[in-house]
Structure formats: C-alpha cells, structure tokens
C-alpha cells in the first residue's frame, strides 16, 4: 500500500483462494492443472473438428465451435492465476491486474449468456421453420450474430468497473476468493457504495433473466413443434439435437443465478468460491463431453481427426 495525503491506498490485493496447508495446495495445483489441460484439449478438439470437417460447416456447428473457443478464453481468465496462487507465498495481484481480470471474467461470462440464447434461436429456426432455415440462418448471418454477442458483452462492464476503481481502497486488501469478484471487492471499499452495488445487481439480473427467458421461450416453441411430429424417431432426433444445449444451459444458469443476481447476497465465502468454481471451471470441462457424446456427427469428426493424427504420427 502507498500513502496518499496521509491515507493508505491499496496498490495490490491478496487473493486468499483456498486457505489450506502447502501439501494440499500442491494437490489442488495438480488437480486443477489436469482439469485445465483437459478443458483446453476438449474444447480445442471441437474447434478443430468443426474447422476441418466440411460437413460441420453449418450454423449449428459454427455456433458450437465459437462456444468452445469462448470456453477456452473463459478458463484462461481464472485458472492460470489460480494455479500461480497455489504455489505462491504472497498470493498478491496488482490493483490494475485485479480489475482487468474482473473485466475479462465478466465479459466472457456475459458473452456466454448471449451465445447460449443464439444457439437456442438456431434450434428454434431449424425445428420450427425448417423450410426457411437455410435462407434465414446462413453462415454469414450466424457469424455476424456471434460477433454482435462478443462486442455487446465486452461493452457491458467498462462503466461499472470504472466507477468501482474510483472507490477508495485503504485496507484491508485481502479478497476471500480466487478471482476478483465484485462482491468481495465492494466489501473492501472504505466507504459504502450502495448505488454501484445496486447497479451491478440490476445489470447482472437483466442480462441473466432476459437471456434465460429468451432460451425458455425458444424451447417452449420447439417443444410444441416436436410434440406435433408424427413419428417417434423424428421426435427423438429433434430432442437429441436440443438435449445437449439444454443440459449446458441448466448447468451454467443454475449456478450463475445463485451468485450474481445480488453481488453481495450474503452467501458464505466458501459457497461463493465453490459455485464460482463450478460455472467457471467445471462446466467448461464437461461441456465438450456433453456435446460430443450426444452428437453422432461430432463423434465422427473427432474420430476422423484422431485417425488422421495417428496416421501422421506413424509416418
């Protein structure tokens, strides 16, 4: 901390992460390192499969590849710093680095809440408007919508973060979390900031509920359309294309709503960390399994990549 006009000002924070013995930290380091590598490999495999297999150059798989790329970016906002913390004695993060992590962590999460409804909208068009689907949802429109999701998400939080950085932080500087989260950060401010706290809560609530209601509305229409399909095989095929997405939506939104409807909701620190860990690290790890295990085309593309890799290595 530095002194400014007789008042100590925080220049760095301590991310407490998971306080435990050094031996347990080493075990956690190995566990999260393996999880991190598997997440990168699983999501990277989906991106490569969609890029290399011409049969997957359709909006549905383009969206899936973008979603997997987003998951790779998402875990990189938290896991590397967490791994560093496990082996660090000081566990410090600079003031600016903390807020940069805050910005990218929330921007990536917001991008995910925008892309998931876009994937639901794609399934709605494919099932409810099958004749018009190739004309409406072409690859050009798909990529434009994806770009809009990214740009809009990254424009949501600069203003709230700017106002939080202007708050006086004069100590203590220990954040009981593994990521720079708005709740613990606002709690460290020397003065109460109910306006900023309420603004963050309203913004998060609007993003979560509007996108969730859009997804629920899309799948309500999809369900109505599927139930009108005369053949059981047709209904199973329609449900299988939506089942993976619904599983991912349930995992992501279920944990997200616990945390960010109210940034300082009074959840115990341990519960906050576990819930945040689940949607920021566990779901990116299992999402590739959910999508690849339930999708025949994706499994075929991944097998093709595996065979090509094996042949090139044998040469």
TrEMBL record:
A GO MF annotation of the entry reads: G protein-coupled receptor activity
Transmembrane region positions? 26-49, 61-79, 99-121, 141-164, 202-226, 238-262, 274-293
G-protein coupled receptors family 1 profile domain ranges (all copies): 42-291
PROSITE patterns per UniProt: G_PROTEIN_RECEP_F1_1, G_PROTEIN_RECEP_F1_2
Keyword Transmembrane in record: yes
Cross-referenced InterPro entries: GPCR_Rhodpsn, GPCR_Rhodpsn_7TM, Olfact_rcpt, Olfactory_GPCR1
Cite the SUPFAM superfamilies for this sequence: Family A G protein-coupled receptor-like
Q: Does the keyword Nucleotidyltransferase apply?
A: no
Q: Name one GO cellular component term.
A: plasma membrane
Residues of the signal sequence?
A: none
Q: How does this chain sit within the bilayer?
A: Multi-pass membrane protein
Pfam families documented for this protein: 7tm_4 (PF13853)
Provide the alphabetized UniProt keywords: Cell membrane, Disulfide bond, G-protein coupled receptor, Glycoprotein, Membrane, Olfaction, Receptor, Sensory transduction, Transducer, Transmembrane, Transmembrane helix
Tell where it localizes.
Cell membrane
* Stated role: Putative odorant or sperm cell receptor.
By sequence similarity, the record places it as follows:
Belongs to the G-protein coupled receptor 1 family.
Protein name, as recorded: Olfactory receptor
